[in-house]
Write the structure tokens for this entry.
Amino acid sequence: MKLKLIIAAAALLASTPVFAKWSLVQDSTPVVVGGGKLKVIAARGWNRWSKQPTKQSELWSYDGPALNQIQFFDGLAEGQPMAKERNKKREPLPKFTQAMKGTDVAEAFEQTVRVTQGTPDFAIDRIEPARFAGAQGFRFLYHYTANELVRKGEARGAIVGGKLYMITYTAAALHYFDAHLAQAQAIMDSAKIG
Amino acid sequence: MARALAMACALAAAPSLAQEKAAVKPGFSMPVDKPVRILVFRPSVKVGSQSAGGLVTPNADWTSNARKLLSEAVVAARPGGTSDVVFMPELEGDDALLLADYQALFGAVADTVLQHRLFKGDRLPTKKTGFEYTLGPGVSRLADKVGGDYGLFIVTNDAFGSTGRKLLQIFAAGAVGVGVSSGQHIGYAGLVDLKTGDLVWINADYQMGGDVREADGAAKRAKQLLEDFPAPAGGVAGAAR
Amino acid sequence: MNAWQAGIGTVLLLFGTANAHAKEPKPTGSPSAAGYAPIGRDEKGLWAEAEEEERELKTSKLVVRDAGANAYVRHVLCRITGEEACAKVRIYIVRAPIFNAGMFPNGMMRVYTGLLLRVRDEAELAAVLGHEFTHFERRHALSALKKERNARSWAAWLTVASGLTNRPHNYLPEFLAAFYSYSRDQEREADLGGLKLLHDAGYQTMAASSVWLRQRDEKDAQAAALGVKSLKDSDYGPFESHPMNVERMTYLAREAQAMGTDKSFDGLTDFRQAMAPIWPMLIEDQIRLNDFGASEYLLANLARGDWTGSLLYARAELYRARAKGGDLLTAETLYRQAIARGDAPAGAWRGLGLTLTRTGNQTEARSTLTEYLKRNPDAPDRAMLSAIAEGN
């Protein structure tokens, strides 16, 4: 731990840090998210992060990522994980496969969050079939605790052309989840592929 | 370059966020037409000693004194013009868990404001102006215990440079020409409307003044923590004199 | 006198001056004695800081509050320390799938659920609790603080002084390495102190060594499943706070034998009984980490040759999640074995149904999922499973 701090401090001093930036999401018009196929329409007020969590994903936030965030998975391909792997060989994350059903996607998502964020109380509260981007897909609800703050989430997605398209909305359970749920659901409703 | 790097590595230099920042919800002012009660959540107070090598040792007496003196100073400062300042009592069971929930939420909101609103580098475009942050109206449940119109959160963290640290600072500057920081005094405070949950004011300062170990230092610190505190409508901003 | 000598001279003078602060009383007596209060500025500071941490831990969402598990762990601690000392310790079971426990200078102890999943019996649990208690009893946090503080101060002074020469040098790494070496010695002391407590309370002394033996085996199993080299013998270098597992395993076995292996109490039955209510949660937390090798290894240890319906189900879940090669067929078989036993959790039908869907046996998938929904009408994925059962 201490060695890491020293190395981190040295790295900070030695290089010019490149900050990721936030930019405004254009409202009321289709915007492309992630890798380039998924398009959604959002109401005013959302910000997008310039750094991509993974190659096919994108992160938005309304008030700040610790309070609420939307993540877009834009065509996750066979064999790809849902988050960046810290160590591909020793700490692999679950990989998407085309044969997955909605329950499998939810399980893979749960394991991904458990491993990347250390959230042992993660629970799926509901999974049901749902339409997404014009295809037959799934919807699931979840919650977990991170940094002593309980988060709730709703995800909607579908497997189209062998790839996973999914939108997850995660926010603090106290006030924040409910506050923008309707907007998040509207974004999910508006989703189109290609 | 290598020399500065070596120095800084060995000295574990403090982060370089130097500015103090405050923000008030636009249009908000403390009501004057009725008595206002401010409920203070247990302040997070840490006071320690920073060694020559930069390690901070917590000091029990300094911390408990500072907690007591700061609490008294905050009351004496009549924040927002009110003298009705009460402290959240110790809670048990589910009440304690609820309080912990809201403290975690306040922490996340405060961090968000500091990082994405007050700090220039990581601002959200939708939050460049204005001040829309809230804990949600559910926070009123906390007010039910002792009553309170507004909730005040206070966090301070002080590390006083030891004699060794100060000597190192002098030696480094004088003989070697290298800057070594001594001491770290960070604090922030926030005010929440306990009916709506709205954050109506926040103030952060990474270089606070006032020696919190002593009464007049604590008074000075309280004044700094309450800087730009929302004024009663038609009044002057800041804590009442 | 050259610049370097001048520099060192100044450093020593200033450092000597700086260190001549008012003499603080040196703590004496046993921290675990009734009525003990911290002595001196440093110990008081550490206790106050620990008290604040404990205050927060009390309301943490990840503390396991199961009365039975807590009472049992406490009972085991009291067996090795005696009632008086035990009264000075507060144990918190924290939900996290990691093999770890921690001791704070004021008597607060954290035991992670990943550790409760890995210790085989009461003796092994007692070995860990004894280790942590020894840290408390011997004031390790306090001496480590002083050691680290001195190390960093010396490093800072010498580094700055070296700035006077034409060869500036960062002294921190070597001073920190010395500090970590000291930390490792503290861990060895805690291991041996814990072993003595274990022995004096009548427990099987080999239990302490067994914990590390199986940690190494777990690393092997983890690596084997990943197709990588096991890290069990990797030396993590000079900045590691604990000795290598292989070293601990070895000296604990040697010392255990030297103490005499006449004591054999391991409390296996009591341990398994006390952990039973929280085991499903512990197992779930482990198998959802995408760590096939370690998880299968731990399940086999829990089974000890007798695979219950729950353990078979958990193992099947691992295979179903991995779904490589013949895994789905293995999963199907394991679920069937669980169901055949009669003590399978409802999830076994869910798992079997989902597996059969994947392998194309839709007819049986449908009847199996229907059976699951009969057994668990409140299933959160009821709507999804119904759709899958219909072939969607």
In short: Chain B is about 35% helix and 20% strand.
